[in-house]
Amino acid sequence: MNRQQSNALYDEAVKDFPGGVNSPVRAFKAVEGKPLFIDKGKGSRIWDADGNEYIDFCCSYGPLILGHAHECIVSNIKETVENGTSFGAPTRQENELAGLIVDHNRFIDKIRFVSSGTEAVLSALRLAKAYTGRNKILKFEGCYHGHVDQLLVKAGSGLATFGESSSAGVPDTLAAETIVVPLNDREALKKAFTEHGDELGAVVMEPIPANTGLLIQHPEFLQFVKDQCVANHSLLIFDEVLSGFRPGFEGAAGYYNIAPDIVTYGKVIGGGMPVGAYGARDEIMQHVSPDGPVYQAGTLAGNPVAMAAGIPQIKACLQEGFYEEMEQKTASLIEPVHNYAKEHRYPVKLFHIGSIMWISFGEDEAEVRSMADIHPKSGEYFKQLHSAMMERGIYFGPSGFEMAFMSYAHTQEDIETAKAKMCESMDEVFAREPAN
């Protein structure tokens, strides 16, 4: 494919932006070539600056569950924009979107809108620490929670360790307030609570870890985490910025029927506009300003344009049969491609839950539930496969650790085309290597 315009735009962008981008993964550092510049999206398709057309399974990393430029979302945005873009005051759109979410979610009584998933997690942590009067938190290795200082940490050398900063600018003293344990490891979690339980205000986790691969956990492990929190009077925060509204309307909490104390959302509730939210039972949310002492504010929180985009999307998610159809579409793509790879002895494994998908690598059917289970050659394999798929008009996000997503706009024809092109791409990449 000709990428002359995208390449020229990137060369221009590096003069103004660090790495030529406004979010690191967009820089294509994990794959081949320079990043695509996208001019247009409609339904299941995107078009780059050179006019190349792709079936899009990135879907802006998840929020476009109805696809690009869905008519009901676009019309609602236009109608709202004509009356103004921001007021710094309450609007009816906030009430409507909040009602749609809270009235159909068993796990939250009240919600607070913010402007991003990172902001939602940051606010949830502050609330949890204030509510419990404890300053330390626990996270799991391989779970990403936005660029919150206290969560930009990696595991140390022990079974359950204090976090070490994984970003410049994060003081070690702050990182040390975070305990990091491996996923799917009960003994590590028990050890952490034994040693630090009376200091831990919260455990924060992705109940469907989906930022360092799709590391689907056993329901029993998630319940074990919940039980440990209850026993030690720590709050359990489910970070559902990515998984929210994907496996079902109540996200992973509803899918597994495990009640978090606080839950964070983003992505889907904004219909493609910048938005985030955190919610909890009333007893906890009463601590949020102006009702309580936990300060959190935002001029653009509950922005009417973002609310207007989210309202029709959330209404669509509430339609009978919506999630069953999404699950069926996702399975009809992932399972045949997985079986094709298995039949041809290609080291490719595909996973999905709800409408979230991931391409993994490995020569066997072993579980992939923690970072340690990810094949060491995954990065190189994905780089080659991503390039081959792009040349065939199939677009996945430019990182092997990022998820792919199905949208309601993807048709059966899209799925059949994608299946064929993905299998062709595997043939191209792995025909070079002898089968084991």
Can you walk me through this structure?
The chain has 436 residues and is of the alpha/beta class. It folds into 2 domains: 4-69 and 320-430, Alpha-Beta Complex (Aspartate Aminotransferase, domain 1); 71-317, Aspartate Aminotransferase, domain 2, CATH 3.40.640. Helices cover 36% and strands 16% of the residues. It is built from 13 helices and 17 strands. The protein has helices at residues 4-13, 71-81, 92-102, 117-132, 172-175, 186-196, 219-232, 251-256, 282-285, 304-317, 322-343, 378-391, 412-430, and strands spanning 38-42, 45-48, 53-56, 110-114, 136-140, 153-154, 161-162, 164-165, 178-181, 200-205, 235-239, 262-265, 276-280, 348-353, 356-361, 394-395, 404-405. The chain is globular. 48% of the residues are buried.
Could you spell the SSE succession in H and E letters?
HEEEHHEHEEEEHEHEHEHEEHHHEEHEEH
- CATH class of the largest domain equals Alpha Beta
Strand share of the residues?
Answer: 15-25%
Overall body shape? globular
Total separate domains: 2
Quickly give the structural class.
alpha/beta
Largest sheet: 8 strands, mixed
Average pLDDT for all residues: 94
- The third-level CATH topology of the largest domain is Aspartate Aminotransferase, domain 2
* Range of helix content: 25-40%
Tell me which CATH architecture of the largest domain applies here: 3-Layer(aba) Sandwich
Gyration radius over CA: 22 Å
List segments where confidence is low: pLDDT < 50 over at least 5 consecutive residues: 156-161
Q: CATH H level of the largest domain: which superfamily?
A: Type I PLP-dependent aspartate aminotransferase-like (Major domain)
